Amino acid sequence: MATLLYRLGRVAFRWRWFVTLLWVAVLGAVGFAAAKAPATPDDGFTMPGIESQRAFDLLEQRFPGTAADGANARIVFVAPNGEKVTATENRAAIEKLVTEAADGSQVASAVDPFAAKAVSKDASTAYSTVTFKVKADDLTGAAKTHLERAIDTARDAGLTVEVGGDALATQPAAGGSAEAIGIAIAAVVLLITFGSLAAAGLPLLTAILGVGISMSAVLALGSAFGLSETTGTLATMLGLACGIDYALFVVSRYREEREKGHAPREAAGLAAGTAGSAVVFAGLTVVIALAGLSVVGIPMLTKMGLAAAGAVLLSVLISLTLVPAFLGFWPNAVLSRRDRKGRAKAGRGNANGENGGSRWARLVVRRPIPVLLLGVVGLGAMALPALNLQLGMPGDEAKSTATTERRAYDDLATGFGPGFNGPLTIVVDAKKADDAKSAVATISKDIAATDGVVSVSPARFNSAGDTAVFSATPATSPTDEKTKQLVQTIRDERSGIESTASGASFEVTGTTALNIDVAQKVQGALIPYLALVVGLAIVLLLLVFRSLLVPLKAALGFLLSVLAALGAVVAVFQQGHGASLLGVDQTGPIMSLMPIFLVGIVFGLAMDYEVFLVSRMREAYVHGDGPGEAIVSGFRHSARVVVAAALIMMAVFSGFIGAGASMIKMIGFGLAIAVLFDAFVVRMAIVPAVLSLLGNKAWYLPSWLDRILPRMDVEGEALSRKVPAPAADTPTARLTPVP
Questions:
Q1: Degrees (nearest 5) of the Cα angle 570, 572, 574?
Q2: What are phi and psi of 165, to 5 degrees?
Q3: How many CA atoms lie within 13 A of 74 on its CB side?
Q4: Is the pLDDT of residue 729 over 80?
């Protein structure tokens, strides 16, 4: 591996113009395809294999042409100053709005609340549902303006009018400045780390190019493969973070080899062969974790994982080819000012030189047990809130009270009860029933008698008369644990209810039931997913480090960091600790997809730091250092770069906390805090402490297994034999002109 990448680095350095133009051509071709591609679809969500999805599919089949996914607006009216909506003036204003709304060009129907009995018992609140013939994304500006003017007229009459639904939904901030914020902070970190504008700019330039290609690819393939905007956001997030980090490690190793006196082309080859090998295996662990999301069985999650994995693979390729090519253009500019002026500090290129990383490592090696206990106990305490994890999907209740959707949600809950915002949709298949209407009435009556159900709506039949749908309103809110228990109770009593319905069957769906089903499916998939991803990564790390204990230690360290990160997410987004500081308007259940998403991405990123840091320890150990000195040597060469890489990752992810979309905000925070825990607690403290306690046993591999496993040579042992050491470590050698 190291020899192959060494040759690749030298070739890329030598043919730098060709390599650069090739990547620019790829960007141009993919960008052209993206410009000509149809618009990307909206974030459709399907979940095969759950009852809610089966019931929805049955509705689509039996009620054709009903535009089940058409836009809707639920307009909520609240009478002022204790008045009633049934008062003459208020009723006239409401009926006028309904009439005007029904005249909209894309409106399918507008329901009169007085005819539909959509008035609260105290007559303080009423609502009208306006449905459209097209999806929310396809609504014209004229259609929205027409409805908004009708609403303003009702407000002018003195009524409080709020609007829920997706037709006029407040669009969350896109977080478009997230990338710019992350790049700006990354630039500062790189400049401090390298002390050179060229060295700081090179990783940024290559990462931005990679993100441009990956985002263009998502746009180009979006229509064909159903890749949504959220998919592109995740690819951008990981592509930018990994692209900067991978280039950072190659550039750092190049500077190190130049300090030893190697010529520029030779240094580029050595950097690609050593740091590049670590980049390949680190990238593969991230790809395994992301591609493994497909085992969950959620199409949206699969697409997001595969698109992000593609962005990471692209980052690996760029770091192995374009970075050495750019080093060919600026072979000396990426060096620090001291090195360019030939004033290298004595001992700096010496393997025995001391720096902050080596001093910290010596401290840990001397006191491994206190460091280990402090790290484990600290992360364990951070993980405690995860014991109270509640899963769900955010709705209007999670939005800011500044939005009309949230106010409409609150007004409906006040006027009609907390369960009104999350009704259960009951779909009855009466195709095999002798008397469809009688069977549906029986099922409706039995469900209405279930404890926790406040009311049921009249059943609505399809044109064939063999399928009916009605709503059951719970007594509790959509995110209440009692609502989950109610759904389970109705399903548990299904056989008894259907036995009295003469051949009819029913299923429970609706947004509330769908969220419950999604949470259960994700929880069920978490263990198989962990087993697959951790198992494959352990095998990969076994090849890299040729050790039994190092991969196991890496996996256990990951579990600590991901549980601590999940605990922090629960503490902020569910329990509300510090939520206002992050712009979280409303706490509530954690999104169902968040735990498995966090596990997948954090595992890949955690293995990044493991490979980068421990591979240098392994390199020193293979070259003759003792166990303790190998740890110190690994930190001497890698600690500063790993810290910079972690800070860059945190900066990129933290930038997405400002996004309006709750999923992106939560993912950004979760990933940023996970990198903090994993890089600075697990990899920089717990890992050296454990390796120090294990000593030589850390690198033990049975002889029979050693013979079976292929040799990857990540530490570049073959290169040390192939490439002779430079004759002299002088400023002249370091600043050799490029051929």
A1: 50
A2: 85, -175
A3: 18
A4: no
CB 714 within 8 A of CB 540: no
Under the banding of pLDDT at 50, 70 and 90, the label for residue 575 is confident
**Alpha-carbon gap, residue 729 to 344, rounded angstroms:** 10
Share of the chain above pLDDT 70, in %: 89
Confidence band of 353 (pLDDT split at 50, 70, 90)? low
Which tops the pLDDT comparison, 298 or 447? 447
Region 50-67 average pLDDT: 80
Segment holding 384, helix H or strand E: none
Smallest Cα–Cα separation from 296: which of 50, 511, 558? 50
Helix 594-622 vs helix 299-329: angle between axes, to the nearest 10 degrees? 40
Residues paired with residue 467 on neighbouring β-strands, in sequence order:
429
189 and 647 in contact (C-beta within 8 Å)?
Answer: yes
Separation of alpha carbons 24 and 600, rounded Å: 31
Q: Is the dihedral of CA 485, 486, 488, 493 positive or negative?
A: positive
pLDDT tens, 682-703? 989 999 999 999 999 998 888 8
What local confidence, expressed as pLDDT, does residue 725 receive? 62
- Residues facing residue 461 across a β-bridge: 468
Structure tokens at 572: 């902020």
Q: Between 184 and 180, where is the model more confident?
A: 184
What SS3 string covers 526-546? HHHHHHHHHHHHHHHHHHHHC
Sign of the torsion angle spanned by Cα atoms 578, 583, 587, 591: negative
Query: Cα separation of 612 and 675, whole Å?
Result: 14
Phi, psi of 508 (to 5 degrees): -105, 125
Q: At 402, list the tokens.
A: 């500044």
Amino acid, res. 690: V
CA-based radius of gyration for the chain: 30
Q: Are 244 and 204 in contact (CB under 8 A)?
A: yes
Rounded Cα distance, 132 and 304, in Å: 30
Helices 594-622 and 687-694 cross at an angle (nearest 10°) of 50
Gap between the Cα atoms of 355 and 137, Å rounded: 56
**Model confidence over 236-265: pLDDT tens digits?**
878 888 888 899 889 988 988 888 888 999
Does the pLDDT at position 345 exceed 60? no
What pLDDT does residue 727 have?
55
Highest mean pLDDT, choosing among 41-55, 154-168, 176-190: 154-168
Alpha-carbon distance of 155 to 151, in angstroms, equals: 6
Q: Which residue has the higher pLDDT, 70 or 635?
A: 635
Burial of 702 (0-12, 13-18, 19+ CB in 10 A): exposed
pLDDT band at 347 (very low <50, low <70, confident <90, very high): very low
Convert 46-115 into a string of H (helix), E (strand) and C (coil).
CCCCCHHHHHHHHHHHHCCCCCCCCCEEEEEEECCCCCCCCCHHHHHHHHHHHHHHHCCCCEEEECCCCC
Which residue do the tokens 């999670």 mark?
398
Rounded to whole angstroms, how far apart are CA atoms 74 and 79?
16
Listed residue (564, 575, 649) closest to 599, CA to CA: 564
Rounded Cα gap, residues 41 and 44, in angstroms: 8
**Strand (E) or helix (H) holding 471:** strand 467-474
Model pTM?
Answer: 0.78
* Dist. CA 480–CA 483, nearest whole Å: 5
Distance in angstroms (rounded) separating the CA atoms of residues 79 and 87: 9
Q: What's the CA gap between 309 and 601, in Å, rounded?
A: 10
